[in-house]
Write a structure and sequence with these properties.
alpha/beta, Rossmann fold, Four Helix Bundle (Hemerythrin (Met), subunit A), two-stranded antiparallel ribbon
Length: about 300
């Protein structure tokens, strides 16, 4: 068939025909496109996280997905906000000073005893163990996800717990975050690529600057706790370093700090000696690598790439 033809009749006008060839889209391809364009509901979400750096990074990621985000730095602040605002979901850090995530959840449950619709609460933790999961169930939580946040996992978990067809008492557990092939690398580039794609460079730069400054102070604290054999101090400080590092894609630093936390719980002084010495150099190298990565991102933005 001629791809272009004209049929003209005097006094009546002209009829133009154009035939265009398109590739047939398979059902599988249509489903793939449809799946990739599904956006989360604009749920009203309360983020409860005591660490400033973690709170800022996660809040920015959530806002980039369209969630209406309010933040709280601890359990008491969260309770006060819940008494004033109707939230759809709470993303609850478990390890917080004062009132921890489990205690805060139990308090929320008591506040809502007479409510027909209970507030959905998802645990947000770097410690996704069976015992922790069971504690979350007993406290009345609806699900658990691991740190650092994977936005696609969070979207699916929130959609699932908000599904009105779900039976009461069901519990959503997302798979643990993995860094396959990243174990010996300072940076988790796949995670950083997502982070810098969703959050503006200037916002992340200010967060990173805070981490570099506070990180050095925490390493000094770690050294002092080590010298004084203060295992509780070692455990708490290494936990803070691990969470912040992983939220900024510094996997090697995060894993090393997590290992110090574990050895402090066991009281293994010999292992701690080596790890505390190693973490100083890993922090310095991780900082240099992240600065280099950010400078490349900045150069790409200037070049319009």
């Amino acid at each position: 068939m001629d791809p272009f033809s004209v049929d003209s009749k005097e006094g009546k006008g002209s009829l133009f025909r154009v035939v265009l060839a398109f590739e047939t889209i398979s059902k599988e391809s249509r489903n793939k496109v449809k799946k990739s364009t599904v956006l989360p509901q604009p749920w009203s979400l309360l983020l409860v996280e005591d660490e400033d750096i973690n709170r800022k990074v996660v809040a920015e990621l959530l806002q980039s997905e369209g969630y209406q985000v309010t933040t709280a730095s601890g359990g008491n602040e969260a309770i006060g906000l819940i008494e004033q605002i109707n939230f759809d979901v709470v993303l609850m850090d478990l390890h917080m000073p004062g009132m921890d995530g489990l205690q805060t959840t139990e308090q929320i449950q008591r506040l809502q005893e007479k409510n027909d619709e209970k507030l959905k609460i998802i645990a947000f933790t770097g410690d996704v163990m069976e015992t922790v999961e069971e504690d979350c169930r007993k406290a009345g939580m609806d699900g658990i996800i691991s740190k650092p946040i994977q936005i696609d996992v969070l979207n699916k978990t929130i959609s699932s717990v908000m599904d009105s067809k779900k039976r009461s008492g069901s519990f959503e557990k997302a798979g643990e975050n993995t860094s396959e092939g990243q174990e010996d690398l300072l940076l988790n580039q796949a995670y950083l690529d997502i982070l810098f794609n969703k959050i503006k460079l200037e916002k992340l730069s200010s967060v990173v600057a805070i981490f570099f400054s506070s990180g050095k102070n925490m390493l000094d604290e770690l050294e002092q706790f080590h010298l004084s054999n203060d295992m509780d101090g070692l455990r708490e400080t290494s936990h803070r370093i691990s969470g912040m590092a992983k939220h900024l894609g510094l996997d090697k630093l995060g894993e090393l700090a997590g290992e110090i936390q574990q050895q402090a719980m066991l009281g293994d002084k010999a292992s701690i000696n080596q790890l505390v010495e190693e973490i100083q150099s890993v922090f310095a190298n991780s900082s240099d690598s992240l600065e280099l990565y950010m400078s490349k991102i900045s150069q790409q933005e200037r070049n319009g790439d």
